[in-house]
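Project standup — Tuesday

K.O.: blocked on the structure for the chain from last sprint. Re-posting the sequence here as requested.
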Amino acid sequence: MRCRALIASFLPFAACLALWAFAVATASAADYPTRFVTIIVPFPPGGTIDAQARAIAAEMSESFKQPVVVENRPGAGATIGAAYVAKSAPDGYTLLLTLQSLAISPSVYAKLPFDPVKDLEPVSLVESTFWVFCASPSFSARTFKDFIAAAKARPRALNYASTGIGTDNHITMEQLQKAAGIQVTHIPFNGAGPAMNAMVGGQVDVMLVPGAVALPYIKAGKLTPMAVLGATRSPALPDVPTLAEEGLPGFEQGSWTAMFAPAGTPKPVVAMLNGELRKILDRRVREKTFYIEGLEVPRSSSPDQLGTLLRDDVVRWRKLAEEAGVTRQ
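H.V.: unblocked you, prediction finished:
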């Protein structure tokens, strides 16, 4: 009886506490933001995602009437910047703009200092993009079939670049090698910028490149497109075959970009950020800015949809990493 009485006396207090927490969260959303917001990019400056972040930051700054700045924290397959955000205060003032490598990290790093699913709050998808299998301009082969023939003739003599160990283009290239029966040496770089510099400079032979990154180099004659990793050919590259056409079906994949906040960020703040991103992305679709038909698509989502995608991709990439023989570091 005494225990029941104590519980009964506590219930009004608990209800008040819940109402107080809701009021604080609502008030924080109504006032948000009252100071500058930082978008963490876990890659070096100069890449496509860095440019994306700076464009988003400029539009958010104008809408929020507060500075929105971009800070690059690259390293360890994009986990350094992601861990920084995961451990930041859950107040909406530190955000993460990253690639789907976030979903791959648990399959690659044995001692990951954060859990992507538990420690980050999904805000919204930003875009999805197809990859283009590209060769350096100094590489002798001009078609995908020629590349396969050269790789089979000289095992491990050819090399490929990736944006880091355990990233999506690394694991996919390892899968591609197994499917094609070839052996090519992996050269990891710390992000897309350094990898692209090496490609254009002829220091590496081939690379899976996001379509939006590849197209300007292709048009300038600085990269040779050999295949598109899409279900169909891209209107932007109508003469470039798909990998399926080249005899390697099952590689219709690309990458996604998304924004996250620290876990525990008030739901009203997340909803406000989501709404702002949706406005930016809707405008990009209308104006076709940061948009290349058949290669890159602005793609917003609800926080719940992004959360489901992240959870599903963690499972999917764990299987792909195992199949590709990529071991945890």
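K.O.: great, moving the ticket to review. The chain is about 45% helix and 20% strand. Residues 10-128+256-324 form a domain with the D-Maltodextrin-Binding Protein; domain 2 fold (CATH 3.40.190.150).
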